[in-house]
Write a structure and sequence with these properties.
Chain lengths: 366, 366
């Protein structure tokens, strides 16, 4: 069991990473001076699988428990579902003693965090991430939000949880595809910040795909530490430090959107986005072909696509142009200067981007 | 023209109070480094009345302007309207240069502030309050929110504006009843914090009701200063300092709710709530009958009810029990220790509250 502190003054909190630690959740909450009533936001299958052990642990530490089940789809990240949840929460919460537990992946974490941020102008919440992607990335750092017709995460807040509780044993519920998607974010951390982690991933990839506890716990804790360090220096992405986390995401989001969020899941799109960013980095002479090939090999071994299929380069560039990260008329790219190092480049010409994207397109003859 | 600074570190801002200052709004915004695109949330009648002069001032200082009209009812403070507004805002905002102007009273200010707080995890907004109540109170301090079926302001955030711009000339659009409602909040500030202001109100009440610029500007600026001082010491109502602002509101909200938000408007209910709080204060020996009579006389001269009609005391107490300010099982009352002084009392027995409420009920024979 590892405890990683995320330091943010009065909003500081711990990230707990371990294997089979769920029965101890109630004990960890004791230090936090929360209310007596836990409101657990989750979905049907997660409730069936983990609900009893989470609820038992909470009840043993003297809490009341209520579950709120939301659909297991991206549609749960909407104002409509948020409204339903908040009304239900209000009927449960009579005496201002309620706190929220997000038991789920990125969708549930983002929704629950948003609900916690706006209900009565903010109540405490705990992240209990059940996907690798959430344990490594989305449960940490306080970015919460729901989607609008006009775009993803257009509504939200920066609102930090009081605890992130990552039991890697929960990851056994994941499909292989979901594990691969999570590994994409782990690879991202390695490429932007941690050469040693990159080597570790290369050596332990099959163990990770098999969900072996030791390497899994190591990787989740390492990524959590890297994210915690970045967030504590730049909570609101205002100083350009948190920006490095967007490596692979700028074009990744565009690839996701261009595929209408069906062709690729987030992790897969980020993998492709990282490769496109590597292509740009090579084209600009920031890093060499060798680094690109190493990243490509690792992404491929993680079970992720390395070539874009069925989406046109021009559509990707058009989606990129409408991304909310596109500040003013200038784009902003996190590029690689070799594994473990990054450079932020502004106002990249669209031709450069287009050329890089074209290089990642599956050629018809392959 | 008066400039009142509200000091909150990086979130500090100015409150500008003056008469006929709207044509200068664009100039004031220049210092704030806002984007080029103003998104003005207002209602149809306010747009017709003040829209042209606000828009002209902004255009002269080189901004683009888009109006968004919402219904002139409390229903605009809903998740449904917030969603509609945010989707519309997203279609206007392409290049992350948009900021919001709330041109209206409390409903529009609360809605616009909430939208600003959650859109893309927070964009800047400006309060241009058009009601006396908003100029004196609700536009200042960053409490934003929308209502749910289960209760008012259940969804919201603490999110500070970048400027509060109070042109008392705009108050000419108000009905007499709306002016009276605003005066209730002014009386509240005087009772809790400022004996001199109380005397000023006693001397200048007819001038205020006639909307004479001089006393109006004085009172708005004075109340704004008092609120600014309180908010800068306790932004999130976490230290018990901001709590004094709830004087008259604890039972006021209950009276509003007991009357199903139709019998009394907010200011009227606060007036009655203050009188009930004064009754409790007298009953507990914190202040004397004389202070109660002075407050009662002033409230009456302001055109506000001083007796509760058509709502039963037991229903008021029941509504009070369900108020979101009711922490744990203990209530929290701001009581008066004579004009200008307060005391916060916890866990008041319900009989004491009931007796005070009964004293303010209109007796059938009167």
């Amino acid at each position: 069991l590892k405890t990683i502190p995320l330091r943010l003054g009065l909003r500081s909190y711990d990230i707990i990473v371990g294997y089979g630690i769920t029965p101890g959740l109630g004990r960890f909450l004791k230090r936090l001076k929360l209310g007596s009533d836990a409101y657990i936001i989750t979905n049907t299958s997660l409730k069936a699988r983990f609900g009893p052990s989470v609820a038992n642990s909470l009840k043993k530490s003297g809490r009341n428990v209520r579950f709120k089940v939301v659909p297991d789809t991206e549609e749960s990240k909407s104002m409509a579902v948020a409204s339903l949840v908040i009304n239900d929460l209000a009927s449960y919460d009579r005496l201002k003693r309620v706190f929220i537990i997000a038991l789920g992946g990125g969708v549930i974490g983002d929704l629950a965090g948003f609900v916690a941020s706006v209900y009565k102008r903010g109540i405490p919440y705990i992240q209990v991430p059940t996907s690798l992607l959430a344990q490594i990335d989305s449960a940490i750092g306080g970015k919460t939000g729901v989607d609008l017709e006009k775009g993803k995460n257009l509504v939200g807040a920066f609102y930090q949880p009081r605890l992130v509780f990552a039991d890697v044993k929960l990851l056994k519920s994941l499909s292989r595809r979901q594990v691969s998607a999570g590994l994409a974010e782990a690879i991202k951390y390695a490429v932007i910040k941690d050469k040693q982690l990159f080597s570790f991933l290369e050596k332990n990839l099959s163990g990770l795909l098999a969900l072996n506890p030791k390497p899994l716990e190591f990787v989740v804790a390492r990524c959590a530490s890297l994210k915690a360090a970045i967030v504590s220096k730049d909570e609101r992405e205002a100083r350009g430090i948190r920006t490095v986390l967007n490596f692979g995401h700028t074009l990744g989001h565009a690839i996701e959107a261009a595929g209408r969020f069906k062709a690729y899941n987030h992790g897969e799109a980020v993998g492709l986005g990282m490769l496109a960013a590597m292509e740009i980095s090579v084209a600009l002479g920031l890093t060499d072909e060798g680094a690109l090939r190493r990243v490509e090999a690792l992404i491929q071994r993680a079970g992720l696509p390395v070539r874009i299929k069925g989406v046109s380069p021009s559509r990707i560039v058009a989606c990129h142009y409408h991304d909310k990260k596109f500040v003013g008329k200038r784009n902003l790219f996190v590029l690689s200067c070799g594994i473990g190092k990054t450079k932020i480049v502004k106002s990249l010409p669209l031709e450069v981007i287009l050329r890089a994207v074209r290089k990642r397109i599956q050629s018809p003859t392959l």
